[in-house]
Input
Amino acid sequence: MLRIDRSIHDQIVAHARRDHPDEACGVVAGPEGSDRPERIIEMLNAARSPTFYEFDSTEYKKVYDELWDRDEEFVVIYHSHTATEAYPSRTDITYAQWPQAHYVLVSTREPDTAEFRSFRIIDGEVTEEPVEIVDGGGSGADR
Amino acid sequence: MAIEVRIPTILRNLTNDEKVVKGSGDTLSDLVTDLDQQYPGIAERLVDGGKLRRFINVYLNDEDVRFVGGLEAKLSDGDNVTVLPAVAGGSR
Output
């Protein structure tokens, strides 16, 4: 299951809307091993395409170094589909190389509602998981 | 000469869960050969048909090695190499 703060959820959707009709992509970082998505980082889509996304290699390195120094990891890796459903495509599955990450897909094909779904993609196998959106801007423990 | 190499999660099963390993070589290609002797199997995850795999990013210090010679990139003592699987996909 993915537990995610409402404000982060809303920022991911807003990013996807802003870049529509191109695909948007980014990550949510959190402390290593915590499974807590805490810090959203919007990434450039180097492909600038409505059907493909790829992190810009220079920006990716910079972000990774920062995570490394802070003992964080990619808890969520998100991207949007702008004309199809929020489900991993064959391409998404082929290139899913972070087994610990929740792969979040947002579909912006409908102007009023955004589909927001989360998956584990490990060794080519896709498993959808429930998404719990948490209000209040903190981890469950301190409420 | 010692080169520090940062290993991404997906390859740590090959490095006994080490995040950072050390290797040596005058070029990236030599380094990969040396790493593969220490951690068998790592070379084929990085290289395919004599070239770096398209969806694996390798950085020499802060530079994507594709821009500084690829596998022929020259290494110096104290350099850092970072291996990062590309993050990519799409709706098709």
